Amino acid sequence: MKLALRELKFYKFKYVLVTLILFLLAFLVLFISALAQGLAKENASGVEAWNQEYFVISEGVDDSLTQSNIEEQLDRIEGITDEGHNIEFSANSLTTPESTIDAVFTNTDENIVPQADEGRLPENSDEILLNYKLTDEGYSIGDTVELEDTDVTFEITGFTDDIMYAHTSMAYVTDGGMERLDSTSIAAVALPENMSFISDDINDIQDVKMVSEDDIKQAIPSYQAEQQPLNLMIVFLFIISAIVLSAFFYVITIQKSSQIGILKAIGTKNSELVKAILIQVMLITLTGVVLSVVIMFALNNVIPVSMPFYLNTGLMVIVSGLFLVVAFLGAILSLVRIIKIDPLDAIGGE
Amino acid sequence: MGLVINNLTKSFGKGDIETQVLKGIDMEVGQGELVILKGASGSGKTTLLSIIGGLLSRSGGDVSLNNDDYLDIKQKDLTSMRLKGIGFIFQSSHLIPYMKVIDQLAFVGEQAGLTSKDARQRAEKLLKEIGLGHRLKAYPNVLSGGEKQRVAIMRAWMNAPVMILADEPTASLDAKRATEVMGMIRDNIRVNNSVGLMITHDERLFDYADRIYTLEDGHIAPEKKNEEKEPVYN
């Protein structure tokens, strides 16, 4: 322990530089993860908010809720199960003083509606609950929103965070509210868990099929397209981190080969030298990662709500742990080198 | 007693390219004795010293220290033997750049199992003895060449070794410093009753030796006694 710490202290500048590089890499990984999570939320948080396991939707619409319409088959579905929740969908545009904003209207019917984070859920047909992101457009509780090119207006009664579908904010209105819209359709019947046993019966109905929540999410066109490249970037950043760490520590180890020879000649055990390197690598990585986590949390408070950015504590713990594993792998090259150094090199001058 | 070497051989390479560097060395170094090993470059001095120090394996022969075949043990135990039983002094001081003077010694003590407190106390005592009491908290980069080598010598004595092996310890010092350091090494060997073996070319230092061996072509040349002093055989 002393060996490792004394060296870090003496060569402060050198090791601060590596820590800085580690910090930047860890920060980039965490930032991209948060971005990926944020984008995932923009795509699928509305679906996740229902907290349902299965969905009965139209066949041949690529599992897309906006294109699905199962009104004709509804009676037959209800004949099989009465535990389903009907989900109505209607894509509309809201007019703001400056622009128009797309919003997917859905109904507050049944018990699968998320709670209001601010204000309350709509109770009358002229009330509406909006995605929290729309506060960024200047909306607040009590304001009136108007559907584009119509006289239909709603009064905002509340906001809820994370209700989006395919980058479009969702708006909750009552069944009565849905009736005031031009085009609505029953897009799906949502089923809670343990309902897989009826899938055969459902799939027997013409033009209807039963899919999982994950199928619905994956089918959102922007979902995969955004997640895949970001995840690829994260994987590559991990590989880069491993290579940077190994290269750096390997060069340092080569530089101090003769010193390690001396330490061995005067009787320092291999285990002691290996321990010193491991402590150094772990300390540097830990410092860099902790620093990046702290900055991420600080950043989370100042980033505007409209930006797709979501800190998932569980994921941050995993990413930080992975960084330590990667650092350990990067150190292996140096460890092999250290063990191979011959104390004989110390004797007889250079 | 002391260091006893019988018919020690060492070859490098195999088959046609085999070269025998040491061709049957017989020598003895008694306790409290400082023996100088001299010889031309490439005569095998450093090879011999490395074998005695357990850094290099031998091809044949017997080596014992106080009747103990200390080289015939596992590699791991040999490292521990080097730590506790043998003190090395190298050509240049080879101090660890990131350790303060007192820590250079204390580290070796701690490695050998001393508590941090005991190690520091002993280190401080040794360093004060050689007049480096005011340099305890200094890093090697601010020490003069002589000071560095004095620290290195005391590092070798930190664990009260049975045997001191020195490879041209004065090579990097001027004449005045060299005799000073030499005197220190000899005095320490006498006081601690250690076995002392030193490689050097410097004829001015031969006076400090109890005996001098000359290595020639892989053999020990006939012994040259220093002054008229009778060597002590135990």
UniProtKB/TrEMBL annotation, chain A:
Described purpose of this protein according to its UniProt entry: Part of the ABC transporter complex hrt involved in hemin import. Responsible for the translocation of the substrate across the membrane.
Alphabetized, the UniProt keywords read: Cell membrane, Membrane, Transmembrane, Transmembrane helix, Transport
List, for all copies, the residue spans of the domain called ABC3 transporter permease C-terminal.
232-343
Membrane topology listed for this record: Multi-pass membrane protein
Q: Spell out the InterPro entries in the cross-references.
A: ABC-4/HrtB_transporter (IPR051125), ABC3_permease_C (IPR003838)
The listed locations are: Cell membrane
Q: Which Pfam families match?
A: FtsX
The name of this protein is: Putative hemin transport system permease protein HrtB
Can you name the source organism?
Salinicoccus sediminis
- Note whether ATP-binding occurs among the keywords: no
What protein family does this chain belong to?
A: Belongs to the ABC-4 integral membrane protein family. HrtB subfamily.
Q: What is the annotated quaternary arrangement, including any partners? A: The complex is composed of two ATP-binding proteins (HrtA), two transmembrane proteins (HrtB) and a solute-binding protein.
Q: Which GO terms describe its cellular component?
A: plasma membrane
Ranges annotated as spanning the membrane: 230-252, 273-297, 309-336
UniProtKB/TrEMBL annotation, chain B:
Q: Under the GO molecular function aspect, what terms does this record hold? A: ATP binding; ATP hydrolysis activity
Instruction: Tell me which domain of life the UniProt entry assigns to the organism this sequence originates from.
Output: Bacteria
Report the SMART domains cross-referenced here: AAA
PROSITE patterns per the record?
Answer: ABC_TRANSPORTER_2
Per UniProt, which keywords does this protein have? Answer: ATP-binding, Nucleotide-binding, Transport
Outline the extent of the ABC transporter domain.
Answer: 3-234
Question: Which family is it part of?
Answer: Belongs to the ABC transporter superfamily.
The name under which this protein is listed is: Hemin ABC transporter ATP-binding protein
